[in-house]
Structure formats: structure tokens, C-alpha cells
From TrEMBL, chains A, B, C:
Keywords: Membrane, Transmembrane, Transmembrane helix. One of its GO terms (cellular component) is plasma membrane. The lineage of its organism: Eukaryota, Metazoa, Chordata, Craniata, Vertebrata. Belongs to the ammonium transporter (TC 2.A.49) family. Rh subfamily. GO terms for molecular function: ammonium channel activity. This is Ammonium transporter AmtB-like domain-containing protein. Residues 23-394 form the Ammonium transporter AmtB-like domain. The chain crosses the membrane at residues 12-36, 48-65, 77-98, 119-145, 165-187, 207-228, 240-258, 270-287, 293-312, 332-351, 363-388.
Length: 417, 417, 417
């Protein structure tokens, strides 16, 4: 690895991030102010707690979730925090500008920061796919594009496709998964077969991953109910998420035992299945009026997640050389898609006093919005992938696809102690 | 170990759990609905937080508490989550049916899930005694029996023995400890003396156990005040629990230094003593009107816990071959008993305008309820122990009592990565 | 190490702590009662949450923050909890007596325990400087002196120097840092040059330190807003703290990459910089009316922290043999000083309808209060340092300055398992 390369990244990363930070501060200086309304302040307590829960998920949950690769555990947590705070600042600004579609002064309140945090979470999900294959500078570029693309997608969905706030946010899992998968597809190959094995065997047992999983588990009901306005919808979203998570945990453990030739339970499976229930129940959580439906949904999500990870993963990796480090596709992608479809079905079933043609039209629009989200994810992922391949941050060496070993050979990528 | 045995468990565990899950979903389908009352929903915020605290204790606290045996740490956390979600579902159903004593539709609200979680916590305490000696299928059977038995005990105590909700739940620690100890007594012996040593020396220093302990520490005040209705009782329960925990921590560290010939402080002691204070203050927490009494109670609990673990443990292990892996008897059993007795004394002392004979009768009833809880714990533990010894899940080999080594020899028991 | 020394400490520590605990219980018996007012109880929910956040910071945050030295990780967490519970009890009593300046019965409520916890946190910060250089008995002495000195400082500042509750508490970081540094200066030298190296190299990568850092990160906004009464001030304090933390994280990571010759990011730097933002924004958090100012302040704090740690640390260690184990000076001392100065500037700028001479007088008083806090920290630190050097807990051996190795050679200091 030439020293020229290292220097360029070494200079670029701080330069780029400092410039970003200065731009953010200037924009905040000119365009933001704190809310001064009394009503807003009364809501502080409730919102502060909900916000804290979401923030804990983002920092602890996603931070520790990706620590299972021995070589990346430090990078995972530090990069996670770095990307999160950058993403939140950008999302807060974009959310303000895009919502009011002008450059007037915007008001920063608890709910806007909460929305920004949820949007920035999409970056953390995508990072799970590419971690160990890109450097921090590339991750910063990815953050900028993904947050912008997802904010735009949400805006279009809400304004023109009649989607509500909650559902448009819940499509995030799906968006982030397909974004990340597209990026990783675009990154230059071939993946050396040796590093593939290394990637698998480096998976040392880590209680920290379980810690991250549990943090996500515990606070998922807060996440799924955060954007709902009506008390009874919040209520139902919380209950449904708990039931779905509980059943997807049971299903995941069983599926894992069944899938293993000797009946061993695989911890990686547990991490995936446990979370799949929460993802799947996200979008329709406010429409499910009885626990059994949430339980069935959780159970199906658990099965899809383990089944996909066990059988589809190897197939995709062989066929299209798609290397999904943490199985994001099966934890977030497919369960998110399932949730979106169930949501549309439930909306159609629960629509009352609507004639058939109107209903059919509405279902079409909803399906269109779902497809639009995925298309936007893939398109912006493609853009990001090409950009990450094109540019100055590339090495002239042959191994463009960094395995987890190379993370330590190339100091500029590593997080030392 | 014959392959026939392995296969039978391998098939039985998923089969049994899937059947259970299907039965749960069907019962939930026919017999439950979400609350639709507006008052209920207003209470959501308060109850949601209290519920979250209890749930964090159950998942993080008990999950990480039992990770100190190196061989079991994975199993401990994964099994803990599995048993918890099964237990909560069963307890929610039983609680509904037993409370209304009929098969009418029951309402699922936050407080019913919270009660169910607290009941299911009893399984996690008992699991601390038997962990490493039984397989997951046996733990599932244990969960079913223990949750049923404890729900029934609570119902009888509340309906016929005039106990209040709060105290009947706080007797859980005691119930769970004696249940677990009876089960472990019934499991076939002999314990090979070699494995006994191994059990001790495998205790590698683990910060994770401390993490679990701290999670329990922090949220214990929420646990002890969760079922109290009046604001001032909640208030006092919170304060008293903090003071008791603080003093039991100090006492525990001192006792540990005194008990060691070279004045070393033993981390295992700290885990025990720290929690003993919270257990002891549980039942009487709403009756203690000044901090000093909670402090004295915490101090006594800390002493009982360390003293018992240091001196009684070895004695019991030698005499009745009672092998209490995590010292559950001294963390939960004895301090729980102390709390029960203090509760009865305080109720008698604070009773006003009651003549002596009525008071004596009341104290007798209370003592009877305390004894009844222990007897039910032992009886249902006996039933469970016999059942676990009797059945098809037994191996035909001579070592029926699995030491922590065998956990890895028998793949069907293990949690791999 | 002579056995006489060991015995004396072995006897003294439990004796001293038991005496303390008995004294505390007796004082609590005579002088405290729980609040019986109804208004107070209504505030329980809000205060309980804010209190929990602060308590989680103290136990998890500071407990795990100092685990990075391999030899101390056990001691760090156990001692942290021990010092905290002792400190809280003392601070609660002192706070009551000093506030009412009499020996009447005082009322224990949530806000008094919260204040006591915040005061006791100062001990945990100072412990970060001396950890590994003193034994537990010496830490107990330090706790008693520091809590008393800081309570007195706060009382004088509030009563005579016209400081408000919030600011006087936020000066804690500064007080604790200079207290700890003075103590460590007084501890007998010379520091063997070998142990100095050991201290550095023993810094094994530990995810637990990151866990502690994240706990502090997450709950810092609660800490900075805990003592503010008005809803809009709380609101602003929460927002400003988030923005300052976010920007100090970004700045810290960049500075770390720039400071390293090969562009590596140093995790120790991240821990420091991440927290520096929260410390710096503490005092002025309620006066900052726009996010950009908090962002600039966080950015400067991050730079000071990394710059100081990287360049000033080595210089101080060589010149005055000041050995600051965890870089407390750069995480808490300097950023705290920055926050204090910014607070005075903002108060002066935002003062309205005040003529110039009055304003000048006010600024002088404020600067005096700031200086007084530092002087009190240094003075009480000097007293503590001399006391710790003087006494019976000293060994007659030549190595008075325990390196982290000796922690395990001298059993009375160690936490075993």
C-alpha cells in the first residue's frame, strides 16, 4: 500500500469532516432557533423519554450489534457514533428545509431531533453491510447521500403518495437494507476467497453483540410507537411490538436448532430472528387490534429471517457475489418488506365505507409507494457505490475489497488504542 | 452419549416449543383483546416506564447475572431470554383466567403484562440454581410448572389469605429460590467430585456479571414499587429500596473483606450482597416510614447473604449434596424470608384500633401465608424434579448430572456461535 | 510487604466503614424523615426519571469508564459503587444540615437524593486520577473530605457569592479534577520509571470503557438539566448538551486522526473528547439560545481535550511528575473551566437594564466564585494528600507509589474473584 494513498486519505478525512462541521454550524447559525412555545415545552417530558429510547437504540444497540467480527469491534462502535452524529445533524437540517420547502428559519424541538435520529439510523443499518469493506471517509460520503436520499423519499411519499409519517419512517429498514446491499454490490470485486473464510471464522463469541441485541429488543416498542400521535395507536404499537418480538425470539431459537445438523443453537441466528419480529411489525403496528396477529407476524418474520440467512445467503453470495457481512438483508430487508405488505393488506381490510374501485386505487398507490422506497434505495445505493468506486480514495493496488485483516494492515483505516 | 438420545431431544425441543407457541396463539386469538378504555391509555406513559424498568431487569439483569461460569455465558443469556418470553406469555394468560376465574375474554393492558413479567422473573431466579444441570427442554417444562404454581399460589394467597397484590408478588424471590433448590435436590446424583471443583474454578472474572448486577441494582426500586397503587407508598418503596441497597452494598464489601483470610474482596460476594438488600426490603418497602429502618434491614440482609454463602453453602453441599450454582439461596431465599417476616412484624406494629386477639389472628394468617408460599415452592419443585428425572429426556448413560463440561460434549445442549 | 502493614489495613478498613455506617444510621434515625406533602409526591414521576438518569451515569458511566487499565477493571467498578453509596449518604446528610444551617429534622425527598448523587459524582471523577495509587481505605478518607469540602464550597458560593444551584453544581467537574490532581501531586514519589511504562502499555483495548462512555454520553443531557427549574431552561439545556456532545465527538475523532503520525484514531482520545463537550456546556447550558453556540463550544472543548491530553499531559508528567492516570484534567478540568468562563461571559452579555458599573461588579463576583471553587478544590486536595501521606495506612517499604502491578502483590488492595 503506497504512502501516497495513505496521506491522501489522512488529509482528506479530517478536512472533509471539518468542512462539513463548519457548514453545519453556519447553517444552524442562520436557519435555526429553539422552540419558544409553552405547549411544546410541556410535551418535553414525554418526548424526551421517547427520544432517549430511540437514541439508546442507535448508540448502544447498533453500536454493539456489529461488534461480532473480532477485527472490527472498535471501529464498529466508534464509526457508529461518528456516523450517527453526522447523520443526525444533516437529517435535522434537511428535515426542516424539506418540510417547509423554503429557507425560512426552522424551529428545533424534541420531535424534530427524534425524527432526525430515526432517519440517521438508516445509515447505521447500511453500515452493517459495508463495514470492513470501506474506510471512514467513504462512510462519511455514504452517510451524506443516504440521509439525503431517504429524506427526499419520505418527503415525496408523504406529499404525493399519501403515506403517513409513521409508515414512511418504518420503511426505513427496507430502504437501508437495499441501499447497503446495492452499495456492496458496486464495490469492486473480486472478493478473495481466503478472506471470505476469514470473515466467517473471525466471528468470535461475543457477549457484546448480545448486549446490543438486547438494547434493540428492549427499546423497539418505543421506536415503533415514536411517531404515532393518538394514544390508543401508541398503546397498540407498543403491545404488538412486544408480542411480535417475543414470538420471533421463540421461533428463531427453534428454527436455529432445526437448521443445525446437530441441533445446536446458533447465536448469530438469535440476533437476527430476535430483531426481525420488531422490524416486521413496525409499519402495521398501529393497525393490529389483537395480540395473536402480531404473534403470527413475529413468527413468520423469525422464520423468514433464519431461513433466508441459512439458505438464501450462501446462494446469493455464490451467484451474485453479494457479501452481506451481518446478514442485514434477512434482519431488516425481508422482514421490512413483509411488514410493508401486511400494512397495505390491513389498511385495505380495515377500510370502511369505501367502494371497491377507490379501495383498489388506494392499494395500488400504497404498493407504488412501497416500490418507490425500494427503487430509491437501490438507485441512491447505486450512485453511492459508483461514487465510492470512482474516486480519489481508491488505492492503486489490486485488492480493492478490504477484508477484515487489511483493516489492520492499513493504519489509516484502523482504530487503535 | 448415544445418538438416539441426542435425536430425541433434538426433535422434542422444537416440537414441544412450536406446539406451545401454537397453543398460545390460539388462546390469545380466542380469549384476549386490547384495552379500549381511555383512562387506561392515559396511564400508559407512567406504566410503560415502570414496565420497561422491570423488563430491563429481567433481560439484562438476570441475563448477565449468570454469565460468570465461563462455559455457560452464552447459554445463560439466550436461555434466559427464551424462558422469559415463554414465561411471560403463559403468565399473562394464567393471570387473566385465574383473576376472573372464568373463560371470558380478558383485556391485555400494560399492568397485566407487567405482572406477567414479574411472575416470569421467578423462573429466571430458579434457573440460576439448575443452570448447567439440565437441558433447554427440561427448562421449558420447569417454566410451565413454576409459572402455573406461582400464579396459583398468588391467587390463593390473595383470595383466601387476605394478602395484598404487592406482598404476594414480593414473596416470589422466596418461592423461586426454594422451588429451584428442591428441583436441584431431586436431580439424579452423584455429582462427580471432579466436576464440583471445575464448577468453582471455571468462575473466570467477568465484568458482564457486574453489568447484570448493576442493571438489577439500578432498577430494583422500580421493581419494588411497581405494584403499589398509592403515590406515597410508591414514593417510600423507592426511597427505602435505595437506602437498603446502598447499605447492603457497604456491608457486603466489608463482610467479604472480613471473611477472606487475607482481606481480599470477592466479587461473587458483592454480587450477592448488593442484591440481597433489594430482596429483603421488597415486601415491607411500603411500610417503612424512615430511612434508618431500611438501612438496618439492608445491612442485616447483606450479612445474612455473605455469611450464608461463605459458611452455610459448603455445609449444605457436603451434607445434603445441594449444589446451588449461583448461591440463589443466599441472594434470594434467605433475604426474601427475612423481608417476609419483617413485613408481618411491621404490619402488626402499625395496626391501629385493633384489639389484641384480632391482631394475633391476623399475624397467624400472615405467617400461614408465608409458610404456604414456601410449601407451594417446595411441593411444585418436588413435582418438577421428579418429572425431570422420570422422563424421556433422560440419557441411558451413567452421568445424569451434567457438569459444565458436558454442556459442550452434548451438542444438543450447547449454544454455538 | 510486611504482614504488619497488611493486617493493619485489613482491620482498619472494615472497622472504619462499619463505624461510618453505624454513625450514618444513627444520624438518619434522629434527623431525617420522608416527605409527606402531596405536591412533592406528584413530582415523583418526573424527578424519579431524572434521578435514575443521573444514577445510571454514576454507576454505569463512571464505573465502566475507568476499566481500561487491565489490572484495575474489577477494582474500578467495585470501588466506584462503594465510594458512590458512601458519598451519597454523607452528601444527603451534609446537604440537609448545611442548607438549613441547623440540626432540625430534615426531609428526604427525590431532589435531595439527586443532589447528593451529583455531589458524590465528584468523588468518582477524582478517583479516576488516583486509582491504582491508593488503597480502598485511603479512598474512603478521600470521599469523606471531598464531599464535605464540595458541599461547603457550594454553600458559600450560593449564600455569599450569589451563585445559582445549577452553576454551583456544574463547577463540580472543575473542583473534582483539581482536587484529584492535587491529591496525586502530594502522594509520595518517586514514581518508578518502569511502572510508568507499564501503566501505559497495560491499556488493553476494552469495549467496556466505550460502554461507560456511551452511558455518560446518553444521559449527560439529563445531568445538565437536572437542577434547572424552568421548563424552557431545561429544554434548552437538553438540546444544547446534545449538540455540544455531537460536535465534540466529531471534533475529537478528527483531532485524534490529525494528532497521530499515521492517521490512526485513538480510542482513549474519543472517550475524552466525547465527554469534554458535555462538561464544557454544563454551566452555560441554560443561557445558550441557539444550537450553533453550543456546537462551537463543543468543538472548542473537544480540541482542548485532545490537544491537552496529547501535548500538555506529557509535559506536566515530566516537569511536575503529575501522573494523571485517566487524563481527568483534560476531560473534566479544562473543559469545566472553559464552561465556567463562557457562563460568566454569557451572563454579562445577556444582562439587560443594568448599568456598567453594576455589571462589572457582578462579573468580578462571578470570577471570584469560579476562582474560589478552584482554590477550595486545591486546598482540600492538599489536605487530603497530606493526610494520606501522613498516616498509619502507610507501608514502611520504599515503593509508596503503587503501580498497577503492586495492586496484585498486596492482597488487601486487590479485588479477587
Amino acid at each position: 500500500m503506497g504512502s501516497k494513498y495513505q496521506k491522501s486519505v489522512r488529509v482528506w478525512l479530517p478536512l472533509c469532516a471539518i468542512t462539513l462541521e463548519v457548514i453545519f454550524i453556519v447553517i444552524f447559525f442562520f436557519f435555526t432557533s429553539y422552540s419558544a412555545s409553552v405547549d411544546e415545552q410541556k410535551k418535553l417530558l414525554r418526548d424526551y423519554r421517547a427520544f432517549q429510547d430511540v437514541f439508546i437504540m442507535a448508540t448502544f444497540g447498533f453500536g454493539f450489534l456489529n461488534t461480532s467480527l473480532r477485527r472490527h469491534c472498535w471501529s464498529s462502535i466508534a464509526f457508529n457514533l461518528f456516523l450517527l452524529v453526522l447523520g443526525v445533524q444533516l437529517a435535522a437540517l434537511l428535515d426542516g428545509f424539506l418540510t417547509q420547502l423554503s429557507l425560512r428559519k426552522m424551529v428545533i424541538d424534541m420531535s424534530s431531533i427524534q425524527r432526525a435520529t430515526m432517519i440517521a439510523t438508516s445509515v447505521l443499518i447500511s453500515a452493517g453491510v459495508v463495514l470492513g469493506k470501506v474506510n471512514l471517509l467513504q462512510l462519511v460520503i455514504m452517510t451524506l447521500i443516504e440521509v439525503t436520499a431517504f429524506s427526499a423519499t419520505r418527503l415525496v411519499s408523504i406529499s404525493y403518495l399519501d403515506m403517513n409519517m409513521h409508515v414512511s419512517m418504518m420503511y426505513m429498514h427496507m430502504f437501508a437494507a437495499y441501499f447497503g446491499l446495492t452499495v456492496v454490490c458496486c464495490l469492486r470485486k473480486p472478493l478473495p476467497s481466503a478472506s471470505e473464510d476469514k470473515d466467517q471464522t473471525a466471528t468470535s463469541p461475543s457477549l457484546f453483540t448480545m448486549l446490543g441485541t438486547l438494547f434493540l429488543w428492549i427499546f423497539w416498542p418505543s421506536f415503533n410507537s415514536a411517531l404515532l400521535e393518538l394514544a390508543d395507536e401508541r398503546n397498540m404499537a407498543v403491545f404488538n411490538t412486544y408480542y411480535a418480538l417475543a414470538v420471533s425470539t421463540v421461533t428463531g431459537i427453534l428454527m436455529s436448532a432445526l437448521a443445525h445438523p446437530q441441533g445446536k443453537i446458533n447465536m448469530t441466528h438469535i440476533h437476527k430472528a430476535v430483531l426481525a419480529g420488531g422490524v416486521a411489525v413496525g409499519a402495521p403496528s398501529y393497525l393490529i387490534h389483537a395480540p395473536w396477529l402480531a404473534m403470527v407476524l413475529g413468527s413468520v418474520a423469525g422464520m423468514i429471517s433464519i431461513g433466508g440467512f441459512r439458505y438464501l445467503q450462501a446462494c446469493l453470495q455464490r451467484k451474485v457475489q453479494l457479501h452481506d457481512t451481518y446478514g442485514v438483508h434477512y434482519t431488516f430487508g425481508l422482514p421490512g418488506l413483509l411488514g410493508g405488505i401486511v400494512n397495505i393488506m390491513l389498511m385495505a381490510l380495515q377500510a370502511q365505507g369505501v367502494d371497491k374501485s377507490t379501495l383498489g386505487y388506494k392499494v395500488l398507490i400504497d404498493l407504488g409507494a412501497l416500490a418507490f422506497t425500494i427503487v430509491m434505495g437501490v438507485a441512491s445505493g447505486l450512485l453511492t457505490g459508483l461514487l465510492l468506486n470512482l474516486n480519489i480514495w481508491k488505492s492503486t493496488h489490486k485488492i480493492h475489497y478490504f477484508d477484515d485483516q487489511s483493516f489492520w494492515k492499513f493504519p489509516h483505516l484502523a482504530v487503535g488504542y
